[in-house]
Design brief:
Helix content is 43%, strand content 12%. It is α/β, with parallel strands linked by helices.
């Protein structure tokens, strides 16, 4: 479980850099006692466990040494280290990105008290929902939101934000058909996502000029697999601008290959209707011939290639 240890070590090192290096206080300065810091501890592996069995064992026992009734722990824990520990746990679950059951089980344990539920809901938001998180995953975040909304700890006003987030997270789920998109091309004509006929459709929600959008465009253009599929008419790429300002959209048209569909969402219907999550742009959705979602809200071209390769 090298990747788990790397996450935990990285978190500890980050805290040390951020908090170290203070000058020696003068004699007359009163030194306040430093609060005791507590670290999250992994359970000890059984000595007779085969190496290939370690991932599954950690999946089942990752939280064995964590006391969900100890809310005092939350005031003493190294926050960065705890975020990294949570991310390590999500890493363990990544081979089943549609299986939210482990997170559901974790959130049931965390519901022992409001402080504990607040804390694990926050961890989930940071790791599973933040636009900048590489582990962003709605299927894992849905159980987090369900736990908050099912809890008696929150009033109706506190439920508004998680209820909205849950509505958005439930859009375009993997294995389900994608929401319709009516897009407009440079000639002013409107077209339907469902009218695209190809074995695969790659919906690329992009803001022209953003650095990460450019990186993804270049990664797609450099992919032998995706370009071969384009040439064979097995893949359609729809680059969609979701905003109302079309000035930059027009200015950047020449940067995109001519065999990609370059379009915009006239009237910002996706945002108005809440049919796609636009908090994180760029975003890639890989769809099959029936427009079922194979990859949701991703920026990872190698992963998209891997998903296609598994189906070949």
């Amino acid at each position: 479980m090298k990747h788990i240890l790397n996450y935990l070590i990285a978190g500890t090192a980050f805290f040390a850099v951020a908090c170290g290096g203070n000058p020696t206080p003068k004699k007359e300065t009163t030194i306040k006692p430093v609060p005791e810091r507590i670290e999250f501890l992994l359970p000890d592996l059984p000595i007779d466990l085969a190496r290939e069995e370690e991932p599954m064992w950690y999946k089942l026992h990752f939280w064995d040494r964590f006391d969900f009734a100890d809310t005092l722990f939350l005031r003493k824990i190294d926050t960065t280290q705890m975020v990294n520990a949570y991310a390590s746990y999500i890493n363990l679950l990544w081979d089943e990105p549609q299986n939210g059951l482990p997170i559901d089980t974790l959130m049931r344990k965390a519901s022992a008290s409001r402080p504990m539920l607040d804390y694990f809901a926050w961890l989930g938001k940071i790791v599973l929902h933040d636009p900048n998180s590489p582990l962003r995953n709605d299927e894992f975040y849905i159980p987090v939101l369900n736990a908050v909304l099912a809890s008696p700890y929150y009033d109706e006003y506190e439920r508004i934000a998680p209820a909205y987030e849950l509505k958005i997270a439930r859009q375009n789920r993997i294995g389900h058909k994608a929401n319709e998109v009516i897009y407009t091309t440079a000639d002013g004509r409107k077209h339907s996502l469902y009218a695209l006929h190809a074995e695969y459709t790659l919906l690329f929600i992009s803001n022209p000029g953003c650095p990460m959008c450019r990186e993804i465009r270049e990664a797609i253009s450099s992919s032998p697999m995706l370009n071969e599929m384009l040439e064979q008419d097995r893949l359609q790429i729809l680059v969609l601008h979701p905003d109302a300002d079309l000035k930059e959209w027009r200015e950047h048209r020449s940067e995109f290959p001519t065999d990609w569909i370059y379009a915009y969402d006239d009237g910002c219907q996706m945002e108005k209707n809440g049919t796609y999550n636009l908090n994180a742009i760029p975003a890639l959705y890989l769809l099959d011939s029936d427009k079922k979602v194979l990859v949701k809200d991703s920026t990872d071209i190698p992963y998209i290639e891997e998903i296609i390769d598994r189906r070949e």
